[in-house]
Every structure is written in C-alpha cells, then in structure tokens.
C-alpha cells in the first residue's frame, strides 16, 4: 500500500468528515420527523406503538500533529503537521447494513437486521423530505453506532462534494430497489409507484 501525498490525504480526510457531518444532520432530520408524527397521531396509532431503533454516527474530528521540536531538516520524514481523522471506537462485530451500490439491506435477521430495516426507512424518509435530492448510504457499524457513511445525491448536485462513493447509478436505481419496511409503513410513507418489476443490478464500488 502506497501512502498518498499529504495534500491529497488531507482532502480525503476532510471529505470523510463532510460526509459524517451531513449524515449526522440527515439522521437528526429522521428523528425530528418521527417525533412530529408521533405528536400529531393518536396514542394507539401505529406510529406511536412502533418502537423505532436509536442509531447515531460516531463522534469524530480532524487533528493536526504539532511537535514541540519539529525537525529542521525538511527532507526528514516526520509526523509534524500531519492530519489524522480520529473517531469514537466501535466495539463488537462490524456490520455492513446497506452498501452504497444498492438500496437493498445486506442484513435481514436479528437485531442487526432490524437496524438495517430501520436504516432503509431512513433512506426513504430522507429521500422524500429532501425532494428526492439526498439520502445516506453505505451504512456500517455495530449495534446502531455508525461510521464512514456516504451521502448519495441527485446528479444535479456536484459529486465532488461527497467523493467517489456517491454512485449516480445507485441513486437512479433507488426507487426501483427500495422495498418499504415496517418502519416505512408505521410512519406512513407511500411506496414508490414506478417500479419496473425487476431489481437493478447491484453496483459494486471500491470501499
């Protein structure tokens, strides 16, 4: 493995933080919508009797190393002024819930399968609430603690903003691939009506 140049590495790390910031905000949108729906519904309505999983993205930040006595020889290898991405640690067996190349959850059973089902609902809600412009994908982590998301956007938004993982073909296939879960139904989201009847092929990308 060859390490990229310092400037390129900093750009990539800044892109990861950008995705985490946007993902945190988009997840906050989901829970805000759920709270509002519960408030407007009757106590025995399904949105109030459904227990929505609690998930969140890791705390993170970019940190620059400043050595107290940096080497004067500029040709020497040093950590001085290097930038690192530091994230909250995730313990447990790491799970890829939903790939950024497909809207189909990769986990179907157990507690992690339930979280994947909820995250699929999150995608649907974000897609609708942003007028079909944005949703989170590449969900991964464990027990609802998530990291390294990808922000998927309409081609009208420059892909450069969110990196190479923003796969245009996957975004275009979202409505045909998404299958509403119990959480979509509990919230009252409409199913997509323009299904072709066949699934789009999964788009494999470099993670």
Word description of this protein:
This protein is α+β, with helices and mostly antiparallel strands. The protein has one domain: MHCK/EF2 kinase (Protein kinase-like fold, Alpha-Beta Barrel), CATH 3.20.200. Helices cover 36% and strands 14% of the residues. It has 6 helices and 8 strands, in the order ααββββαββββααα. A 4-stranded mixed beta sheet has the order 1-7-6-4. Strands 2-3 form a two-stranded antiparallel sheet. The chain has a two-stranded antiparallel ribbon with strand order 5-8. A hairpin with a 2-residue loop joins strand 6 and strand 7. The two termini are 15 Å apart. The C terminus is likely disordered.
The second-level CATH architecture is Alpha-Beta Barrel
Number of strands: 8
Low-confidence stretches: 198-207
Separate helix tally: 6
| Shape, per Cα inertia axes | elongated
Mean pLDDT: 86
Quickly name the level 1 CATH class: Alpha Beta
Q: What strand order characterises the main sheet? A: 1-7-6-4
* Biggest sheet architecture: 4 strands, mixed
- Assign the structural class, choosing from mainly alpha, mainly beta, alpha/beta, alpha+beta, or little secondary structure: alpha+beta
CATH topology: Protein kinase-like fold
Helix content: 25-40%
Radius of gyration: 20 Å
Q: CATH homologous superfamily, by name?
A: MHCK/EF2 kinase
Q: Alpha-carbon distance between the termini? A: 15 Å
Number of domains: 1
Strand content: 5-15%
H/E element order: HHEEEEHEEEEHHH
InterPro entries: a-kinase_dom, Alpha-type_PK, Kinase-like_dom_sf
Domain Alpha-type protein kinase: 1-192
Organism: Calocera cornea HHB12733
Keywords: ATP-binding, Kinase, Nucleotide-binding, Serine/threonine-protein kinase, Transferase
């Amino acid at each position: 493995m060859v390490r990229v140049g310092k400037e390129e590495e900093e750009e990539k790390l800044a892109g990861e933080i950008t995705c985490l910031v946007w993902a945190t905000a988009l997840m906050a949108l989901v829970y805000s919508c759920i709270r509002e729906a519960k408030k407007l519904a009757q106590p025995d309505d399904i949105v109030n009797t459904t227990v929505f999983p609690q998930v969140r993205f890791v705390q993170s930040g970019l940190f620059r190393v400043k050595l107290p006595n940096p080497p004067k020889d500029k040709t020497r290898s040093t950590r001085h002024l290097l930038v690192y991405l530091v994230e909250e640690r995730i313990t447990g067996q790491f799970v890829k819930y939903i790939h950024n190349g497909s809207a189909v959850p990769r986990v179907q059973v157990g507690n992690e399968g339930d979280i994947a089902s909820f995250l699929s609902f999150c995608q649907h809600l974000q897609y609708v609430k942003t007028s079909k412009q944005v949703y989170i994908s590449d969900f991964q982590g464990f027990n609802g603690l998530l990291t390294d998301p990808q922000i998927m956007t309409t081609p009208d938004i420059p892909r450069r903003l969110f990196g190479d993982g923003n796969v245009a073909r996957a975004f275009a296939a979202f409505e045909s691939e998404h299958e509403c879960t119990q959480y979509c139904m509990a919230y009252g989201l409409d199913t997509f009506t323009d299904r072709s009847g066949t699934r789009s092929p999964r788009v494999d990308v470099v993670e």
